[in-house]
Automatic annotation (TrEMBL):
<feature type="domain" description="Protein kinase">
    <location>
        <begin position="32"/>
        <end position="223"/>
    </location>
</feature>
<protein>
    <submittedName>
        <fullName>Serine/threonine protein kinase</fullName>
    </submittedName>
</protein>
<dbReference type="GO" id="GO:0005524">
    <property type="term" value="F:ATP binding"/>
</dbReference>
<dbReference type="InterPro" id="IPR000719">
    <property type="entry name" value="Prot_kinase_dom"/>
</dbReference>
<dbReference type="GO" id="GO:0004674">
    <property type="term" value="F:protein serine/threonine kinase activity"/>
</dbReference>
<keyword id="KW-0418">Kinase</keyword>
<dbReference type="InterPro" id="IPR011009">
    <property type="entry name" value="Kinase-like_dom_sf"/>
</dbReference>
<keyword id="KW-0808">Transferase</keyword>
<keyword id="KW-0723">Serine/threonine-protein kinase</keyword>
Length: 223
């Protein structure tokens, strides 16, 4: 695609992303009318330009910008794969990625959109592919998986060089297998999904899936 994405540089320079403590989502400062924010995480925010909508620009907070080159290198190691986005370039504070259409599994839960079993298999296959490339598939959660034409697209590979298992995917997979039938096709209230996300991000290092389930049902039925 060349460097036609560079048309968005001036607009991106008007945006500042600031990280927050306690693993909270980043804050965005500045305005660029031709940019649309399409994703917010704890280290970065993702934007799409009306001029080059085929790209997604992942802008890191200034104190997190060391992750730009790390994530770019992960994409290089992964090579071309249908499970992940394509990284075209990197600037000092942002990555230039392929824009991926679809609905995150988090939004599927909120909207009551059916999540097929194929998604689980696709993510398992993607994780195995990552391992074969010598990397470590971490930080795979509801907001980092897109439902795209019935298949999974995994976003955010920034932690794939970090050692250890955070068990995020194992917990999600077990939750899908044991409890998803209870909410399949039913919208889950945002307050519940957000409460569980915050609790999970602030959890102790060692905790059981049963503890997670107990907390989820306590939040659900106390209302």
């Amino acid at each position: 695609m060349g460097n036609d994405w560079a048309i968005a540089r001036d607009s991106l320079s008007k945006i500042t992303v600031v990280s927050n403590p306690n693993n909270e989502l980043v804050t965005i400062h500045g305005i660029a009318n031709d940019l649309k924010c399409i994703g917010i995480g704890t280290d970065a925010a993702v934007f799409q330009s009306v001029h080059v909508p085929q790209y997604a620009f992942k802008v890191y907070a200034k104190d997190k910008k060391s992750k730009v080159k790390i994530e770019q290198n992960v994409y290089y190691i992964l090579g071309g794969s249908p499970y992940f986005s394509t990284c075209y370039a990197a600037d000092e504070e942002y990555l230039v990625l392929s824009y991926e259409a679809g609905t995150s599994l988090f939004d599927c839960i909120l909207q009551g959109i059916h999540i097929p079993k194929q998604i689980i298999q696709d993510v398992d296959d993607a994780r195995e592919y990552v391992r074969k490339r010598g990397l470590n598939p971490r930080d795979i959660h509801l907001k980092n998986i897109l439902l795209q034409n019935g298949r999974a697209k995994v976003l955010d590979v920034s932690e794939y060089t970090v050692p250890g298992n955070d068990f995020r995917w194992e917990h999600l997979k077990k939750g899908y297998e044991q409890y998803y039938h209870l909410i399949d096709g039913r919208p889950v209230p945002f307050w519940l999904a957000e409460a569980i996300r915050k609790w999970y991000n602030q959890r102790k290092e060692h905790f059981s899936f049963e503890e997670l389930s107990k907390t989820m049902f306590h939040l659900l039925y106390k209302k």
